[in-house]
Amino acid sequence: MMKKRILVLGIIFTAVFAVSCEEDDVCVGEGTPNLTVVFRTLQTQENLTDTLFVERVTSEGELIDTLYKWLITDSIKLPLGGLDESVNYFRIKLRPTGQSDILTVNYTPTTSFVSKACGFRLTYDDLDYESTENAIRNLTPSESNVLENEAATNLYIYYNN
After folding, report:
1. Which of 98, 115, 126, 153 could form a disulfide with 108 if both were Cys (CB 3.0 to 4.6 A apart)?
2. Are 101 and 91 in contact (CB under 8 A)?
3. Each residue of 118-147: pLDDT tens digit?
4. pTM, two decimal places
5. What strands, in cross-sheet order, belong to the sheet with 136-141?
6. Residues 129, 154: contact at Cβ < 8 Å?
7. 121 to each of 6, 49, 104, 115, 124, how far by Cα in Å?
8. What is the dihedral sign for C-alpha 55, 141, 47, 131?
């Protein structure tokens, strides 16, 4: 009698366990994208690999956080804000002896459902860029003013070299 109960409980437990299992959902690469920025020289139009210092600041220029501290690169990825924000300010300094500029990024955030594993993600519409043009000579946005994929370059920043 005891063996039958254990056998029945074992079958019930196995059935419940087998029914409750689902295929694993894995979220790969479907999160909120960052703004991809590439630095170039104005004269040759080639990518400019140099030392960069980048901070996120308030509209008054007060430091929020340091994103890149003297990184040697020709491109960076900048995180934009959430649903409550529509503008971000970044202080960018090329070389320790160079002048810093404030890059202003205006946008309209929108949400979209990706999957059960990933949930919702933000995308950014109506991207618009401005700079103080101390050291920056030109800003050239990509053809699309929508940020959905960080693999594509969204903004080219040109410097005199």
Report:
1. 126
2. yes
3. 788 889 999 999 999 899 999 999 988 899
4. 0.79
5. 75-78, 35-41, 155-159, 136-141
6. no
7. 48, 31, 22, 10, 10
8. negative
